[in-house]
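Q: Sequence in, structure out?
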Amino acid sequence: MTLEHYLQHRTRYETLALVLILSLVLVVNVTTLGIEHMRDGTGQGWAEAWATEFTSLLITGILLPFLFAALVRLNLSITNMRWRVIGLLAMFVVFSFLHVAGFVMLRELLWAAVGEDYRYGPLLLNLVYEMRKDLLAFLLYVAIFYGYQFIINRLQGEARFLDQENAQSQRTTSVQFLVKMLDREYLVKVDDIDWIQSASNYVVLHCGERHYPMRQTLKSLYEQLDPVQFKQVHRTAIVNLERVRSLNSKGELSLELLTGKSVPVSKTHLPELRAALNTSQ
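A: Exactly. Output:
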């Protein structure tokens, strides 16, 4: 499997990996819990062990996409870690509280369905106990997230304009950028860009099947591009007009690119876009 294929189906593979990891954790936790109860003779059955661990990991699986989205917005790095740690702690408290509240509610429903009563026990004591476990799991999820992002960025490469400093000071347009990928560097022409997508404090340069992250805002990058060739069509998107196949004005506004990719268009940018397309034809 190539990197391009993986990136094209990235969401599918990430979801599959998450399901597999949580399933593995479920099996390990259930067998551990079941063996412990068999050893100490408490009499808890395997069905109860499965129900206990499944409810916990089901809520975890529901919460993780929201956690990862929040981590993207947090944009934690070495340079801003001092202040971002406060946000990270707030995320943990919310994550742990929702996790505990969620699995307690599910267990009460499951136990009631079989005619039994689920007893959570002393609220404060058990909450502290669960938050202690959640802290380790939370730190592991954060480490996995940033480790994965680091690997993906290294494999994709990170871009910067070669004439970035001059472009910012003199407002000249850039014609090429440098991509650092692992231990190699590549020169890529700006003409090869199909469209540009905003992603928090990054932008992503879409060049065919390749996607290059660049640490820059969409606004500042737009000022470095040829205004005749590139147009902002949405608050999150800039397109290369030479890559546009058609404008879809029926229903949700969008541009279809030569690659088949659909890019959203906002009504604010529509008049300027139509004028630019008429000029370029």
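The chain has two domains: 3-156, 158-280.
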